[in-house]
Structure formats: C-alpha cells, structure tokens
Amino acid sequence: MHTVGLKTLKNKLSEYVRLAAAGETVVITDRGRAVAELVPPRRAENAFVEQGLREGWLRPARIRDGSPPPNKPFPGLTLERLMADLERDREDR
Fold it and tell me: Are residues 39 and 30 in contact, defined by beta-carbon separation less than 8 angstroms?
C-alpha cells in the first residue's frame, strides 16, 4: 500500500494509476488525513465484500485451531446412496 499527498498525486497521477493497475492500493491524503483510495478495479461481488471488510461491518470467517469447518451431513445420505444416484443419472447419457 502506498500513501501519497494530494499535491504529489496531481503531479504524478499516471505513476500512481499504474501502481493501482498493477494491484497496489494508493491512499490519498490531504494535510495528513486519508481522504480517498485508488484501487484496482474488482468484480462487482468482490467490491461489496471488500467494502464490508474495509468498513468493519463484515468479518472473514475464522477457525482458531486451523481445523476444517464441521460437516453438516444430510440425514440418511450415505456415500453409497450418493454414488448410486450419480450412476443412475449418468445412465441417461
């Protein structure tokens, strides 16, 4: 992440646009206070998530011990039944 003052940004705009295009975030300050961010374009669904993470109203999922999330099995669904259903579906081809 780069930080640049407004006056410097004005004089070297193309340089900072190239940084953003390369994936860097450029924080723009005015008199020492952050006023804007220059970021690379993102897909629409990522922009919403990124905004939520930045503003703090969305937090990433965390598992403290590093283990995978717990399974939520479907009642009565076994591997054998799943494989039989898959084989039956493939018979149509």
Answer: no
| Token pair for 12 | 């070297």
Q: Of 23, 21, 24, give the one whose Cα is nearest residue 2.
A: 24
CB 16 within 8 A of CB 2: yes
pLDDT digits (tens, 9 = 90+) for 37-64: 998 876 666 778 888 888 989 887 777 8
The two tokens of residue 8 are 């410097």
Domain count, the chain: 1
Q: What's the pTM?
A: 0.46
21 CB burial (10 A radius; 0-12, 13-18, 19+): exposed
* 3-class DSSP assignment, residue 5: strand
The CATH number that applies at residue 1 is 3.40.1620.10
Please state the separation of Cα 63 from the chain's center in Å: 18
